Amino acid sequence: MKFNCEIDNIKTLKKGMKITLAIDDKQTIEVMKHIYNFMDKPIIVELLIDEKEQRERLKQITPEQRKKIYGILRDMETYTGENIEKLKEDTKASFIRATEYEDFSLSNCSKDLAGDYIEFLIRLCFEAGIPLKENPIEGLDDIESYLRICLEQKKCCVCGREGEIHHVDTIGMGRDREKVDDSEYRKMCLCRVHHSEYHDIGIEDFQGKYHVYGIVWEG
User: Fold this and answer.
1) Contact call for residues 95 and 153 (beta carbons, < 8 A)
2) CA distance 44 to 10
3) Neighbours of 171 (CB within 10 A)
4) 3 state SS of 18
5) How many CA atoms lie less than 13 Å away from 99 in the CB half-sphere?
6) ∠168-170-174 over CA atoms, to 5°?
7) What global pTM score does this model have?
8) Phi, psi of 218 (to 5 degrees)
9) Residue-wise pLDDT tens digits, 169-189
10) What angle do CA 181, 219, 170 make, to 5 degrees?
11) What is the pLDDT of residues 65-113, one digit of tens each?
12) Are strands 186-190 and 17-22 parallel, antiparallel or unpaired?
């Protein structure tokens, strides 16, 4: 049997790769009639890919970004009691006013726009003291921008709780931090719990575990 579909997701595995295909509603019933006959059996798949179309598609918002956005909006809904759809429209309007972007849809906006909108939502939550269920860094493309937001807002870059500035590049024993120019020192913002863990397991293991690192920030 033959049917048209789109590549929904591609993951590189240790051995080979996993390709997830999306079938439109019109073909679903027909495919379901036959697909179980081929479960656990080898099949031949012919992939006919429109390169130009796929390149444009790769520039669009990713499923992970969309999931991240709605996750943050749900956290905002839980904290404020506002309906999630109203929060989405209100935050989109504020985002558009604060940037040069025009009105957009979360179904097909660009990946860059989605990334900027996520950062905007995280900043709003930090400023309003809204707790985030998931680690804020998950699903972000521009990690350095996020780390800078955490330093500005004094929020832990691992969990989003209240934090303090941690110097990755040590200033040195016996030196007065108030008199030292630390503008070229790498820093990150950590809560007390993660600050203690940082010293317990060391910088390399900490960075590998949480995928955060120090950045140069003047403050």
Assistant:
1) no
2) 18
3) 13
4) strand
5) 18
6) 155
7) 0.64
8) -80, -30
9) 876 544 445 556 667 789 999
10) 45
11) 999 999 999 999 999 999 999 999 999 999 999 998 999 999 999 999 9
12) unpaired
